[in-house]
Amino acid sequence: MAFLEAKKVSKFFGALAAVSEIDFTLEKGEILGMIGPNGSGKTTLFNVIVGVYPPDRGKILFSGKDISGKKPHKICHLGITKTSQIVQPFTSMTVLENVMIGGMFGKGLTLSKAKEKAKEFIDFVGLFKYLDEPSGKITVASRRRLELARALATEPEIILLDENMAGLTPWEIDEVLELLRKVNKDMGITLFVVEHVMRAVMGISERIIVLNYGEKIAEGSPEEVAKDPAVIEAYLGEKYA
Amino acid sequence: MEKKIFSKRNITLFFLILAIILILPLFVHGYLLRMLALIFMWIGLTACWNIIAGYTGYIDFGSVGYFGIGSYVTAILMTKAKMAFLPSLVFSGIISASFAIPIGIPTLRLRGAYFGIATLAFAEAMKQVVLELDRVAHINFFGGSHGITLPIGPGNEFFYYVMFTLMFMVMAVTLWIERSRFGYSLKAIHEAENTAELVGVNTLFAKTTAYTISAFFLGMFGATEAYWVTYITPNDVFNIHVTIQMVIMTLLGGMGTVMGPIVGGSFLTIISEILWARFIYTYMILLGIIILIVIIFMPKGIVGTIRGLVIKKKVT
Predict the structure, then answer these.
(1) Which of B165, B157, B149 is nearest to B236 (CA)?
(2) What is the pTM of this model?
(3) Could B199 and A153 be called an inter-chain contact, meaning their C-beta atoms sit closer than 8 Å?
(4) Which structural domain range is residue B163 located in?
(5) Contact A52/B194, CB-based, under 8 Å?
(6) Total domain count for chain B?
(7) Residue B202 contacts A, CB cutoff 8 Å
(8) Which among B266, B246, B245, B263 has a CA at the least distance from the CA of B254?
């Protein structure tokens, strides 16, 4: 039995199938990558998994239990959380308070316990020097780390990372990759990564699925996917396939 | 940064002010005492509005609906069931709150202006029900546009203490919210509701709870006001101006702060009383100008602006 499994999941916006009959499995402890051109349905699929939208058709199973249609906070309590493509810190709160929210509500800790735990996660992502800084005042690169720390504070089993490296310099990307490997190996958290930076997603994922126009067009190891004619066509056009 | 509000100095100051307020009716009578009770009421009402709008960012235009429900519950219980005032007061709070749950659950799913419009519609609908139900259903319950006359109440001293107690309770709840886990969930909803939901905040539950707490106290203030003025009509107790007054006072004082309602409520009540007494014909114009000046030059409210200045001073 797969850890997280989607069975023929579809989501429509009007007549448009943003996500169409997608199947995938995610095994415990792995890092699964997802790529695809803009508008191929990656973010929508993530939103369906965490419950922002209920799927119109199909099912999502987590440890064998059907979680489709549950609300995001319920799914977070079950152990799946997501970081957003557009960073949304609670801007008037400090970095510490932002991460405390994750502990208090994702894990159900008391205020003082959440504070203690939050400091550990902030230290882990390397933001300890900004502890009491308002989160609206730190750089975008730091805010992306803050998103990760807040997600970690909910003590999840699976984190969905929606373009967590967008807008970072190559050097910053290397640092984040190192961090993600630690999250995966040392904390044992399963990762599902959407990324446009090919070097990053190819380097970190053991397996990759490729979406185009809401459908899954390929699946396999990074090398296999890179050679797949359907993938090359989706990215570069028919001529290069 | 730890805010030390329970320092020795603050606690001494608190008990000093409390003692002064409690013994004041021994020295102050009549108009001035009535004025103070009125200030307490407005601070309390503003604080109720601040709980839902200031902390969660849901701009409620229907708050007067719960004030009116509270007024009518007490009026009906005291005249028809011959109940004493204090139990009626508690019932008013409970019934207002029990209206807030079914009203809050659907409306709090709406965002921004849509929530404001829906709550405005709720308050106006309540007014129409109370106004027309008797005529439509051929009964004699709400008294239609004639309203209800309550038994004559005790003197101003009594209302001074009741208003103060209610205000004190709302302020205590606000202070608790400011520093509690629950308060963090409300602030998170205000900042980024979708993110709050993703990291485990049950947003609908938190919003509805805040809305219900607010309605509970609004109902009790409505009840006390009804007994105080002894005569209520739908147009008085469901008047949209009551809501607007709460909005203006919160904006003047500072949204989502503990001190905001105290400063905004007392500032506007006192200013409008002074202006009204001196400039009978032009006082509304003058009041409008003062509100405009404060909002233009202090967009974060009086409390927010002062706080900003203090922080600036510390930095330099």
Answers:
(1) B149
(2) 0.90
(3) yes
(4) 27-247
(5) yes
(6) 1
(7) yes
(8) B263
